């Protein structure tokens, strides 16, 4: 049987449902996968000895290209150890490799440097790709070159896990293309998959995606990549994660206010309050944790928002979203750090498409951007060479997840 010539990988974004800010103080938070907002990466096999990375959504109109032979493999331990499914040992981050890759990243744009420059965000995206490829390359099993095309529904910098979605797609595609995991064979997603069990491909994907997140963020929590890998919903307490068994899909309208949020500033604001009035703020944080433990009650959405507002992390743009959605008897709350950013609105089963259109139009008139999405859907998904996909078809598709109905899932 011939080896696959391409893979199409899809992974969801994430949204914090309950527990914002309280999680910083050791309380429980709940995050869920954004099934309607995903990153997609098409990996195409080539035999020219080159790695080509295309990032049009990040503003790069020409590809970045590197010879496979130019990568610093001497900085990497044996691949067989690095991809051992049965190892429960945490992967060590390779600072030396990342340092060696910095000038190589810029070399990828050498032929086009007079036409385009690569900014910091684009350099980080390229660094993630090269870090993972160099770490995972196996001369016995690897493709002799590849073209990688990236697109995404997720806005960058909105706190919706766009970087983790990208990291999970990259880790999955490279682990497949470089022969470290098999193609999944299930057409049914399973969002109740356990986070334990080091022998599973999903665990290996999650561990390498976490390494990619370290390239991007330095010290990530691990929540975002876990949600993008496994899907469903995740509870997070004091650094410990577990999936929420039996989580039911929920329909939300997600509104990006496009007000730049500063997570560090919002966290610091709450810390000042906590240090000054611990006897008042701690019960608020306890109440917010209570929402995480009883998140199926619709009324708690409003209460959770009021509690977060009492900590000073609200914003007038968030209030406007709540006013507009409340006119249609819908419940909304800020999600993430607050101070702008995004707002979650739970959509009732009986709401009509006309009503949703009116709400989105009213929000758009204020410069906001809204997306209908399900929370709690499938994690990473794969289509292999059994389905013919052209680059043009991939890049021109409006809704890739629905266009291709033959996604396979790891179990």
From TrEMBL:
Against InterPro entries, the record matches this protein to: GHMP_kinase_C_dom, GHMP_kinase_C_sf, GHMP_kinase_N_dom, GHMP_knse_ATP-bd_CS, Mev_gal_kin, Ribosomal_Su5_D2-typ_SF, Ribsml_uS5_D2-typ_fold_subgr
Q: Where in the cell is it found?
A: Cytoplasm
Pathway membership, UniProt: Isoprenoid biosynthesis; isopentenyl diphosphate biosynthesis via mevalonate pathway; isopentenyl diphosphate from (R)-mevalonate: step 1/3
GO MF entry, a single one: ATP binding
- One GO BP annotation of this record: isopentenyl diphosphate biosynthetic process, mevalonate pathway
Which reaction equation describes what this protein catalyses? (R)-mevalonate + ATP = (R)-5-phosphomevalonate + ADP + H(+)
One GO CC annotation: cytosol
Q: What class of enzyme is it?
A: transferase
Ranges for the GHMP kinase C-terminal domain?
Answer: 300-356
| Its EC number(s) | 2.7.1.36
Q: Which UniProt keywords apply?
A: ATP-binding, Cytoplasm, Kinase, Lipid biosynthesis, Lipid metabolism, Magnesium, Nucleotide-binding, Steroid biosynthesis, Steroid metabolism, Sterol biosynthesis, Sterol metabolism, Transferase
Q: Tell me where in this chain the GHMP kinase N-terminal domain is found.
A: 136-232
The answer to whether the entry has keyword Transferase is yes
Annotated family? Belongs to the GHMP kinase family. Mevalonate kinase subfamily.
Entry function: Mevalonate kinase; part of the second module of ergosterol biosynthesis pathway that includes the middle steps of the pathway. The second module is carried out in the vacuole and involves the formation of farnesyl diphosphate, which is also an important intermediate in the biosynthesis of ubiquinone, dolichol, heme and prenylated proteins.
Cross-referenced NCBIfam families:
mevalon_kin (TIGR00549)
How is this protein named in the record? Mevalonate kinase
């Amino acid at each position: 049987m011939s080896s696959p010539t391409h893979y199409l990988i899809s992974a969801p974004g994430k949204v914090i449902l309950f527990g914002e800010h309280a999680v910083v103080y050791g309380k429980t938070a709940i995050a869920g996968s954004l099934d309607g907002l995903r990153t997609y990466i098409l990996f195409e096999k080539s035999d020219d000895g080159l790695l080509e990375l295309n990032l049009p959504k990040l503003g790069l109109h020409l590809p970045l290209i590197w010879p496979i032979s130019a990568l610093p493999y001497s900085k990497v331990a044996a691949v067989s150890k690095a991809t051992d499914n049965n190892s429960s040992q945490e992967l060590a981050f390779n600072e030396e490799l990342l340092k060696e890759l910095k000038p190589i990243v810029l070399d990828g744009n050498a032929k086009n440097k007079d036409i385009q420059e690569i900014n910091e965000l684009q350099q980080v995206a390229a660094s993630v790709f090269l870090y993972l490829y160099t770490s995972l390359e196996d001369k016995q099993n690897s493709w002799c070159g590849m073209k990688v095309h990236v697109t995404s529904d997720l806005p960058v910098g909105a706190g919706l896990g766009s970087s983790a979605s990208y990291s999970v797609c990259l880790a999955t595609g490279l682990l497949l293309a470089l022969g470290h995991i098999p193609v999944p064979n299930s057409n049914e997603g399973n969002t109740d998959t356990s986070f334990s069990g080091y022998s599973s491909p999903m665990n290996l994907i999650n561990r390498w995606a976490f390494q990619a997140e370290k390239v991007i963020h330095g010290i990530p929590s691990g929540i975002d990549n876990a949600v993008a890998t496994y899907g469903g919903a995740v509870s997070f307490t004091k650094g410990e994660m577990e999936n929420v068994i039996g989580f039911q899909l929920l329909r939300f309208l997600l509104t990006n206010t496009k007000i730049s949020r500063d997570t560090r500033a919002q966290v610091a604001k709450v810390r000042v309050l906590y240090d000054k009035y611990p006897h008042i703020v701690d019960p608020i944080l306890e109440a917010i944790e209570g929402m995480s433990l009883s998140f199926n009650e619709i009324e708690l959405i409003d209460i959770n928002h009021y509690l977060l507002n009492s900590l000073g992390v609200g914003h007038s743009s968030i209030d406007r979203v709540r006013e507009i959605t409340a006119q249609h008897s819908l419940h909304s709350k800020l999600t993430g750090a607050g101070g702008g950013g995004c707002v979650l609105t739970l959509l009732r089963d009986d709401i009509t498409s006309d009503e949703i259109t009116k709400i989105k139009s009213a929000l758009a008139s204020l410069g906001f951007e809204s997306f209908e999405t399900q929370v709690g859907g499938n994690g990473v998904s794969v289509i292999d060479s059994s389905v013919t996909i052209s680059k043009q078809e991939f890049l021109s598709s409006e809704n890739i997840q629905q266009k291709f109905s033959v996604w396979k899932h790891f179990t």
